[in-house]
Write a structure and sequence with these properties.
By secondary structure, the protein is α/β, with parallel strands linked by helices. The protein has eleven helices and 16 strands. It has helices at about 10-30, 90-100, 115-125, 140-145, 170-185, 200-210, 225-240, 275-285, 290-295, 305-320, 365-390; strands at about 1-10, 30-40, 45-50, 65, 70-75, 80-85, 105-110, 130-135, 150-155, 190-195, 220-225, 250-255, 260, 325-335, 340-350, 355. The structure holds nicotinamide-adenine-dinucleotide. Keywords: NAD, Oxidoreductase, Tricarboxylic acid cycle.
């Protein structure tokens, strides 16, 4: 198992002598088999391969050493493992198919309460390198998520016509709580990407569970709002005759109704919209999920476009873990907007998960009104999630 540790809070000179000391110390204690300083802007990073017996306690006795502080930067970079919880579902199956094709994934663990062996057998016949394994039922959950770098959660029930995402709370809140409790034990450093609705509440639920377990790290939990971005980009490209693959539209706020806020003033390439276009396009993006729910007429909600969005976001997390920092919109614990503790904005993803919250940027007066209206709705959703765990 490879662990990346960064030595912080020391001067360049101290770092230089420390690197020598640390390598000697580590070897003398026979706690690692290799180590080497790597260049990094924020202080030397040591790539350390721990003996298997120590892999569960990655920092060992090196948490602090002569004034330098160790920060665990990431783990298991050499063979990334992704666990997909809810793998047999409408989203889970096509998402598994896309993840099986992601070259950054070495191990793909499929977990569900039903049908996982069949899905895994099917996917394992695809000639890509990711190794597929199947886990079924709560007795196998620990093994499914153990050692995962990223856990993606689409487990839970979807909407039927006439339902809001909040109507799913009673069923899905408990599912997310229990899954995250297992992650807290088996892979507390994993990045957790939550697809299960209502995302506005399930993300705070996950945070509260991690807090209770004493492994809270606000940089590691993500509400997947990528589908809102994907939809906004598709609709804008269609309306304006743009190349969809080169069109970017930030979507901020949350992931339900009026909390979904497309920033049409920030579309790239720079695009002008009439007031009429903005007033039609904004609600279409906000209600796009309902458009799919109604068209499927009782057979569920978006699965194929969601799988694409989930695979794209998972790949972005994995690139970040590798040190390829990149920017995505995601619903996370955030101070970007006053008066609310969770908000989706563009965030910089990197080796620790969220490296930087980039904020809402310059918005139009109309968009500011949408932000103001979303805050109280989001607060209600957040409080409901927090209260559920407490
Ligand atoms: N974030 C988004 O943009 C977005 C978009 C679409 C759907 N969703 C949400 O994703 C969720 C899944 O949707 P779907 O269409 O795949 O539903 P689905 O019913 O087709 O699949 C859900 C899967 O979860 C499994 N499951 C249920 N309880 C479980 C548990 N305790 N542990 C593990 N697996 C469990 C089920 O067996 C099933 O295979 C829903 O909550 C839906 O609202 C989110």
């Amino acid at each position: 198992m490879q662990i990346m540790h960064r030595l912080t809070e020391c001067t360049a000179k101290t770092c230089e002598s420390l690197s020598h000391d640390i390598v000697t110390l580590i070897h003398s204690q026979k706690k690692v088999i290799t180590s080497c300083p790597l260049p990094d802007d924020n202080g030397p990073v040591f790539q350390i391969t721990l003996l298997p017996a120590l892999s569960r306690h990655p920092l060992g006795s090196f948490e602090s050493h002569r004034g330098g502080l160790w920060e665990s930067v990431r783990h298991s970079s050499s063979s990334p493992k992704v666990a997909l919880l809810g793998a047999s579902g409408g989203i889970g199956q096509p998402l598994g198919l896309l993840l099986k094709q992601d070259k950054l994934i070495a191990n793909l663990a499929l977990y569900d309460v039903v049908n996982t062996p069949g899905v895994a057998a099917d996917l394992s016949h695809i000639d890509t390198n990711a190794k597929v394994s199947a886990y079924t039922g709560s007795g196998e959950l620990h093994a499914a998520v153990e050692g995962a770098d990223v856990v993606v959660i689409p487990a839970g029930v979807p909407r039927k016509p006439g339902m809001t995402r909040d109507d799913l709370f009673n069923t899905n809140a408990g599912i997310v709580r229990d899954l995250v409790a297992a992650i807290a034990k088996a892979s507390p450093k994993a990045l957790i990407a939550i697809i299960t609705n209502p995302v506005n509440s399930t993300v705070p639920i996950a945070y509260e569970v991690l807090k209770k377990a004493g492994v809270y790290d606000k940089r590691r939990v993500f509400g997947v709002t990528t589908l809102d971005v994907v939809r906004a980009q598709a609709f804008v490209a269609e309306l304006k005759g743009l190349d969809a693959s080169k069109t970017t539209v930030p979507v901020i706020g949350g992931h339900a109704g009026i909390t979904i806020i497309p920033l049409l003033s920030q579309v790239k390439p720079a695009t002008k919209f009439t007031d009429d276009e903005i007033k039609k396009l904004t609600p279409r993006i906000q209600d796009a999920g309902t458009e799919v729910v109604n068209a499927k007429a009782g057979a569920g909600s978006a699965t194929l476009s969601m799988a694409l969005a989930g695979a794209r976001f998972t790949n972005a997390l994995l690139r970040g873990l590798k040190g390829e920092n990149n920017v995505q919109c995601s619903y996370v614990a955030s101070d970007a907007v006053k008066g609310v503790e969770y908000f989706s904005t563009p965030v910089e993803l990197g080796p620790n998960g969220v490296e930087k919250i980039l904020g809402v940027g310059k918005v139009s007066a109309y968009e500011q009104q949408l932000i103001d209206a979303a805050v109280s709705e989001l607060n209600k959703n957040v409080q409901k999630g927090v209260a559920f765990v407490k």
